[in-house]
Amino acid sequence: MRSTDVLDQIDAALHDHTVSRDAMRCTPGADEPEGRAAVAQGIARSILVQRLTDYHGLALAEARAAVLAVENGRTSEHAALVRAEARAVAEEATQRIRIAIQHRSRSLGPTLRYLCRNPERPPAGDAPAARHERPAWQSPYGPVLRRR
Hints:
- By secondary structure, this protein is mostly helical.
- The protein has 4 helices and no strands.
- The longest helix is centred in the middle third of the chain and has 39 residues, at about 80-115.
- The radius of gyration is 27 Å and the shape is flat.
């Protein structure tokens, strides 16, 4: 058996749509935009179901049915609760993102101010050596190419 045969078998197993979702931890279609959207929607659905069971005491099947009903535009006795939890999850995520952006902007502030004042001069620091000044053993790409 050649190495290409082995690689072909691995590729076939990774991209086989007839196997279960957890086979080799592969989710066919997760790389396409539609697949990523479906995965994100499934994660959001799971978060809502978990919050409904943890915070409001709904049974797992009841919480799933309520979330699916709201997704499909149907009415249910827990529709207002599902919408309230969705708003709460969105607000928590927004708050965490806001905090992360604030921390990042504080750390980047001095650098950005320097670059605005001195657009043609890079900040002082260790500039990388020019390719021809570096010994060949330091380059991960092999020796420097010589011009003829």
